[in-house]
Write a structure and sequence with these properties.
Layout lengths: L2 E4 L7 H10 L3 E6 L4 H9 L2 E4 L5 H7 L5 E4 L7 H15 L3 E7 L9 H15 L4 E6 L5 H4 L1 H4 L4 E3 L6 E2 L4 H13 L7 E5 L5 E2 H12 L5 E3 L2 H7 L6 H15 L9 H6 L6 H7 L1 H4 L5
Parallel strand pairs: 1-2, 1-4, 2-3, 4-5, 5-6, 6-9, 7-11
Antiparallel strand pairs: 8-10
Helix pairs in contact: 1-8, 4-5, 9-13
Keywords: NADP
Family: Belongs to the NmrA-type oxidoreductase family.
Protein name: NmrA family NAD(P)-binding protein
Length: 291
């Protein structure tokens, strides 16, 4: 039985990765920042939960003790490159067989977004380490719909991106299953950067219409500035997020998040989650409940 380390294990991609790996018979060590209800749910699934800090080399050495493969995932905030160096060093000392690295679809050295540029730099760090790697270059997640669900409930669909920008929403649950599938059979994917998309490409305006159709109410697309968008969700003080979103608005205009692929379907052996299925799975998040 191989042991796998999953970072951000309580997050949108980490949770399903843990669940799918456990089903496949792996021993899963789930790294979380604090011991809370989400950590307990991971224990209930059968994972070994470790409380640790990815910025601590000591913690990461402990986390990788006895581990064969690991998933690296870092949020949109400062510290990505430093944490990737720490992760790579600990992984090299532990002689890992594989690192699966969450990156950006538009990862490139000349990215406008510092966060995206840092993802490209992190890719280089893992490659320099000499450990087999897979970079997941993911487009926008379908979870964007959940992030704005508090507005959708009241008939508003607002985004900081031009309505013509195109992408194929990918469910985080599918991404977690893809991570598990790669770890189960890494040979075809090791050493590659895999662009990952959902099953159907939409413009932002078309996606708003599709969400409205499923929910049975009109949802006209509302294009707002990044500042207005962040303020609407109480994130006005998130400087790194603001700068990243501002850069991604241009990436969208240039088509850098567009496209589809068959990689996820091939790894999973099944179709990926559609927008309609995603909405129905999380329907309570999008509808008002009355006493």
């Amino acid at each position: 039985m191989k042991t796998v380390l999953i970072t951000a294990a309580a997050g949108d991609t980490g949770r399903p990765a843990v669940a799918n790996l456990l089903k496949k018979g792996f021993h899963v060590r789930a790294l979380v920042r604090k011991d809370d209800d989400r950590a307990q749910k991971l224990r209930d699934l059968g994972a070994e939960v470790m409380i640790g800090d990815m910025a601590s080399l000591r913690d990461m050495r402990i986390a990788m003790n006895g581990v064969q493969m690991a998933y690296f995932c870092y949020p949109v905030q400062e510290g990505l490159v430093e944490n990737a160096v720490i992760f790579a060093q600990a992984a090299k000392e532990a002689q890992l067989e594989l690192i699966v690295n969450m990156s950006h679809k538009q990862s490139r050295p000349h990215a406008r977004s510092k966060a995206t540029q840092n993802h490209w730099l992190s890719e280089q760090i893992f490659e320099w380490s000499g450990i087999p790697f897979v970079h997941l270059r993911v487009t926008f997640f379908a979870e964007w719909l959940l992030y704005i669900s508090s507005q959708i409930r009241y008939g508003r669909y607002l985004m900081p991106y031009n309505k013509e920008g195109r992408f194929a929403p990918l469910a985080a649950a599918d991404t977690g299953a893809i991570i598990a599938g790669i770890m189960e059979n890494p040979a075809p994917y090791a050493g590659k950067a895999l662009p990952l998309h959902g099953p159907v490409e939409y413009s932002h305006e078309e996606l708003a219409a599709e969400v409205g159709r499923v929910l049975g109410k009109p949802l006209p697309y509302e294009h707002v500035t990044v500042s207005v968008f962040l303020e609407a969700f109480g994130l006005q003080d998130q400087t790194a997020m603001r700068k990243h979103f501002e850069a991604v608005t241009i990436d969208q205009q240039e088509g850098l998040l567009a496209g589809t692929d068959d990689t996820g379907r091939a790894i999973l052996g099944r179709p990926l989650t559609t927008v309609e299925e995603f909405i129905n799975q999380h329907r309570s998040a999008f509808e008002l409940s009355y006493a």
